[in-house]
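Render this sequence as a predicted structure.
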Amino acid sequence: MTSSPAPDSTLRLAPALQLLQPYPFERLRALLAGNQRSTASGLRPIDLSIGEPKHATPALVLDALRNAVTEVSHYPTTAGAITLRETISKWIQRRHGLQHLDAATQVLPVLGSREALFAFAQVVIDSTVTGATVLMPNPFYQIYEGATLLAGAQPHYVNSVAANGFAPDWDAVPPATWARTQLVYVCSPDNPTGRCCARTNGQGFSNCPIGMDSSSPPTSATRRSISTKHGLPWARLPRHRHSAAANTRD
């Protein structure tokens, strides 16, 4: 009598996870390990990697938090309080010169840029289409690549090189690649260069949604998620193609 093989207790993970690269801040932490101690002069290195605030929180912010904490007694709705969304809508219209931004349908508060930029790819990418492609600048915020791979698409990197003023050359993307492209991630002002995105003749922008990550230089930490932004390539797109996930920092 033969015994049955023992059941395999190994935890099986999604194969696509093997495609992901280590997160940059984890790699930086390993590279900088042991370098945070004081030097002979008594000075400590200033860590600029993740952009965390280096100063105490202003008293007016702490006071506002303390005064409002008694109102926090229930879970917020998924869409966020309408009063918050209306306030965000009014701010965006003033800040970016928009004529209208519907707080009910075009504003969605999120916990951070990664949440919005990742979820957007899962919504718009159809992985059943052979060669589904996502364009992204390079260097890039790593969530662009991770969202693309886990959505079942392949990334196409648009390099920012010295010959092009360290700006991604969207017009250099081959027509065959544009034809397979389902999503474009655009970052303006660019990180790490801080360069603003100029209007472009990129032929494929009119044929696919845009995931917008509007990031100021990494010393700024305030994040707001918006559904559109003017003054960028899609300003000339047909209205029905203005799909965007965006993060702005001021």
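Summary. Residues 215-250 have pLDDT under 50 and may be disordered. The CA atoms of residues 86 and 112 lie 19 Å apart.
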